[in-house]
Design brief:
Blueprint lengths: L1 H5 L1 H5 L8 H10 L25 E6 L4 H12 L4 E8 L3 H11 L3 E4 L5 H7 L8 E4 H9 L6 E4 L7 H9 L3 E4 L3 H4 L2 H11 L3 E3 L2 H10 L7 E8 L17 H4 L9 H9 L1 H14 L6 E5 L5 E7 L4 E5 L5 H9 L16 H4 L14 H11 L3 H17 L7 H13 L9 H22 L6
Parallel strand pairs: 1-2, 1-5, 2-3, 3-4, 5-6, 6-7, 8-9
Antiparallel strand pairs: 8-10, 10-11
Helix pairs in contact: 7-8, 13-18, 14-17, 18-19, 18-20, 19-20
GO molecular function: 1-deoxy-D-xylulose-5-phosphate reductoisomerase activity; manganese ion binding; NADPH binding
Cofactor: Mn(2+); Mg(2+)
Catalytic activity: 2-C-methyl-D-erythritol 4-phosphate + NADP(+) = 1-deoxy-D-xylulose 5-phosphate + NADPH + H(+)
Length: about 450
């Protein structure tokens, strides 16, 4: 399947395969259309920093999650520079209520309309009573809030696509922490961002590192992107032993404290495969010029090789707040406290080591590169299938090695229906299709492991 995905001709004209005339025509006509990258190989920096009357204002999607809480920590430390005007959250009402009391947003959105009365009771003593909205309408309203200068997209999954589109259509810069925006939505989102003159500023540590290294490069100055990976929980485990690993084993990340899904993605290295696709969409690098290297210390967050073979790297302690802060402050740099933002000490840091990733241990890499080269809806299908497979693994319904097997099967099943230039509706449709396909496949194939 991976070899087939790499060949565009095989995707478009699989021998013996019947496709609808409309789908075939769409694929053939647009196969040469490549969406504009957010930062095509360079990041032009304004000659003068923007001036504003008062702090820069943000809407925040996913305020009670990891990205959201770290964003609000930054706002709390720098109230003269940043403020939040609108918050969207899921079901953690106690934390949301505390955020409302502290940051006093004008608008709040919650996922479940039945929780509004409870939230109102929790914030009855808040100094400012916000407008409260619910569901997708509410989160889109938060994203596009009139007072916001930019939107931090900390919501997980394809649920972040529509509100991100709403923010772009309202002219908000995007502080991007939602992978699906580009992995699934890149062919639709990037032309939209260009149309509205919106900056997409990466909050992932790896893409922030590349973004920083590209600043000041002339046109054509970038030759190659080098993404660093920790290697995850099994980087030192022989590949022959992967068949016996458990959920608990996969969740023991050697460097980072993260949520279960991203920790498993780090173990399979699918997180890095997804980042390869994001790097392609963000910076316009060809897939042949995006490499992955295992860097166990996680001090170098990624590198850029220039046309003359120089290599530029961004270093720092593992701390997600730094890339989040830079999306919020760019093109400015914010002076931070050494107590809450420890400076990098090269003596304490010690040795930096690197190794090539083992393709037998990490089959996700070839799959992600193949899906990326196929483009269109294939990348979103792969991401959604992986998310569903990881969920089943965490529920102990499938084994660790089954994750990539069912993802690859899903991508193979999607080949006939892949859309090269999808609409937003098609992106969301195939995201949901991939999740159902994986769940159904696991049930039919009897992959469930013993409880």
């Amino acid at each position: 399947m991976q070899a087939a995905l790499c060949g565009q001709e095989q995707l478009l004209l699989k021998p013996g395969q019947q496709r609808t005339q409309r789908a075939c025509r769409r694929s053939v006509l647009v196969q040469a259309a490549v969406p504009p990258s957010a930062w095509p190989g360079r990041v032009p920096v304004p000659d003068t920093l923007p001036t504003r009357d008062g702090p820069k204002k943000f809407s925040l999607l996913g305020s009670t999650g990891s990205i959201g809480t770290q964003t609000l920590d930054i706002v709390a430390e720098h109230p003269d520079k940043f403020a939040v005007t609108a918050l969207a959250a899921g079901g953690n009402l106690d934390l949301l209520a505390a955020q409302i009391r502290q940051f006093q947003p004008a608008l709040v959105s919650v996922r479940d309309g039945s929780k509004v009365a409870q939230l109102k009771e929790l914030i009855r003593d808040a100094p400012r009573q916000p407008e409260i909205m619910v569901g997708e309408e509410g989160i889109c309203a938060v994203a596009a809030h009139a007072e916001a200068d930019a939107c931090v997209t900390g919501i997980v999954g394809c649920a972040g696509l529509r509100p991100t589109v709403a923010a772009i259509e309202s002219g908000k810069d995007i502080c991007l922490a939602n992978k699906e925006t580009l992995i699934a939505g890149g062919p639709f989102v990037l032309p939209l961002a260009k149309k509205h003159g919106v900056n997409i500023l990466p909050a992932d540590s790896e893409h922030s590192a590349i973004f920083q290294c590209l600043q000041g490069l002339p046109e054509g100055g970038m030759r190659r992107i080098i993404l660093t990976a920790s290697g995850g929980a099994f980087r030192d485990l022989p590949v022959e032993k992967l068949g016996g690993v458990s959920k608990a084993d996969a969740l023991k990340h050697p460097n980072w404290s993260m949520g279960p899904k991203i920790t498993v993605d780090s173990a399979t290295l699918m997180n890095k495969g997804l980042e390869v696709i994001e790097a392609h969409y963000l910076f316009g690098a060809d897939y042949d010029n995006i490499d992955i290297v295992i860097h166990p210390q996680s001090i170098i967050h990624s590198m850029v090789e220039t046309a003359d073979s120089s290599v530029l790297a961004q270093l720092g302690w593992p701390d997600m707040r730094l890339p989040i802060l830079y999306t919020m402050s760019w093109p400015a740099r914010v002076q931070c406290s050494e107590q809450t933002w420890p400076r990098l000490d090269f003596v304490k840091m010690g040795d930096l080591t690197f190794r090539a990733p083992d393709h037998a241990k990490y089959p996700s890499m070839k799959l992600a590169y193949a899906a990326g080269r196929a483009g269109g809806t294939m990348t979103g299908v792969m991401s959604a299938a992986n998310e569903q497979a990881v969920e089943l693994f965490l529920a102990e319904r499938i084994g660790y090695l089954d994750i990539m097997r069912v993802v690859e099967q899903c991508c193979e099943a999607h080949r006939a229906d892949m859309v090269q230039a999808p609409s937003l509706e098609e992106i969301v449709h195939y995201d949901q299709w991939a999740r159902r396909h994986v769940a159904d496949s696991v049930s039919k194939q009897g992959l469930a492991v013993a409880a």
